[in-house]
Recover the amino acids of this structure.
């Protein structure tokens, strides 16, 4: 079932309508079951949506995020410390809960540091990693752990989901430092598969993630910013593209200080590794502020080569884990997954 686009919604409506339909799928039951049963539970999910910008500089990895407040209760993409020198950012549905039961089903940002599978066999793509001395089985352990958790949730999804083949349900970005290897950035994307059982009743499972390594760059490629957007169809220019185009918002930042111009020049010329973390932090904070939509929230964290993970701009408090938010806390326009529009 493809959710129809409402004229009043913005250009990301198809993505959000899909998520609404998908996560409300527990409300879809075969007609013969619905006749004698009470309405099924309503499942609601809040999305982490926006821009993630990662800078691998001389002495740190900087991760800056901007929320794209495309729906009520949107969450800012948030770096989650997973170890002293590793962080992950989930893009997509992060908070899942049942409204009638007032039961929290998942808080993926809280759970992420513990989602590691013990049953890992390195994927062929990871065996080709440029790490010295072995396979990237630690990244796959994280990817498999999140996969298992998502499939725990997917067993409740029984409605038809018309998701474009290239569009993932969930994305995980991982950045870290490894001894004797250095900094790396991975993107893990999770698709779904459905099998029709009878009528409008489908079984849903989340597929093994696809792994893409964005850092270190390919030999001869520029060493510059790495950026990710959610929803996937967000075609907003990256920070790097905006710098190259001399966007007026960024030009004001660059012209404010000679050091700002130096950092911007290093980024554009692909020499970001020569920038000190203190200078890069000052530039990224100002640049992301200039690009942030009104009322959107930002976060920033650093993974230092010597001191590990630390907050530069901490995220807003996580939602309470004891259950779904009280009705009074959710705006009336919030996306009810039984009535996504």
């Amino acid at each position: 079932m493809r959710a129809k686009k409402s004229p009043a919604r913005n250009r990301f409506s198809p993505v959000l309508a899909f998520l609404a339909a998908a996560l409300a799928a527990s409300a879809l039951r075969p007609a013969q079951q619905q006749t004698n049963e009470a309405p099924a539970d309503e499942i609601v999910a809040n999305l982490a949506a926006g821009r993630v910008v990662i800078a691998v500089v001389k002495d740190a990895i900087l991760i800056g995020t901007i929320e794209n407040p495309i729906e009520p209760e949107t969450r800012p993409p948030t770096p989650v410390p997973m170890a002293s020198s590793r962080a992950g950012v989930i893009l997509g549905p992060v908070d899942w809960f049942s409204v009638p039961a007032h039961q929290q089903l998942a808080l993926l940002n809280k759970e992420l540091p513990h989602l590691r599978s013990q049953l890992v066999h390195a994927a062929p793509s990871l065996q080709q990693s440029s790490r010295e001395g072995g396979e990237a089985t630690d990244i796959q352990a994280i990817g498999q752990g999140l996969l298992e958790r998502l499939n725990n949730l997917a067993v409740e999804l029984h409605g038809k989901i018309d998701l474009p083949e290239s569009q993932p349900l969930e994305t995980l970005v991982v950045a870290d430092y490894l001894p004797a290897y250095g900094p790396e950035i991975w993107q893990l994307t999770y698709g779904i598969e459905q099998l029709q059982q009878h009528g409008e009743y489908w079984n849903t499972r989340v597929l093994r993630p696809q792994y893409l390594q964005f850092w270190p760059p390919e030999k001869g490629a520029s060493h510059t910013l790495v950026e990710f957007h959610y929803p996937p169809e967000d075609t907003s220019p990256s920070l790097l593209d905006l710098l190259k185009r001399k966007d007026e918002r960024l030009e004001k930042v660059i012209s404010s200080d000679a050091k700002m111009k130096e950092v911007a020049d290093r980024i554009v010329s692909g020499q970001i590794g020569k920038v000190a973390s203190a200078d890069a932090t000052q530039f990224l904070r100002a640049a992301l502020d200039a690009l942030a939509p009104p009322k959107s929230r930002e976060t920033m964290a650093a993974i230092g080569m010597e001191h590990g993970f630390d907050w530069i701009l901490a995220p807003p408090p996580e939602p309470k884990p004891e259950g779904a938010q009280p009705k009074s806390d959710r705006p009336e326009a919030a996306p009810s997954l039984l009535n996504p529009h």
Summary: The chain has nine helices and 14 strands. The first strand starts at residue 43 and ends at 48. Confidence is low (pLDDT under 50) at residues 1-18, 20-41, 127-135, 322-341. Residues 137-154 form the longest helix (18 residues).
